[in-house]
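Sequence in, structure out. Go.
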Amino acid sequence: MFLLILTGTGLLAQVSYKPVILPPLPEAQPLPLVLPQSDGTGMDLFLGLSYMPGIRLGQFKDSVKTGFDLLVEGEVFVNEKLSVGIQTGYFHFKTDPVNQGVGKHTFIPACLKATYFFLEQPFRPYAGLSLGYYISKKEYTFMSPPYFDPVLGTTIPGREMTMTSQPSCAGVSPMFGCYYDIDDQFAANFGAQFFFLFPEGGASNFFGIKFGAVYKLGI
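Output:
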């Protein structure tokens, strides 16, 4: 009887410790990257980059030549026809060598904007307004005129001089144009934007014909 109990216990032990072989796990597959897309409504985010020739207006024409402007924009649609956003970029003008000297006048805008779209996609004419601050730097080199020194009794020739100023200021900028939807993610932006800046010593006014691209991102 004792022998049978030991034998049965050994069999149970063998059964209890029999190794279990699990099937191999399937290999993990990478998930496809899917970018969110905009449907043109709701809280959609539009990112834009535009090029504009900078055409000067008023007395600004006397101090600089026609320049170029790069404009970076971001806007969020609060409904189907109204967006709010920001504008920044880089505006560059060469100074007039006759009236000012050889140099450049640059602006970096830091602005808030609001835009109203009159129609929905695919053709979206718009009008908007941008308000903000323009970080400006003006630097040019010129020749000082010769002058007669009565002590030395001779004429002192002119010499090259460099002038630098930072006439940063507030500005307002109305705009109008249209978006044309190319597909669900991209649109073309054509329009015009006027810049009215108010530095000390006189206004700096110019406008640009806008050629740009817009990337539409759903959020």
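Check: The longest strand covers residues 123-143. The two ends are 78 Å apart (CA to CA).
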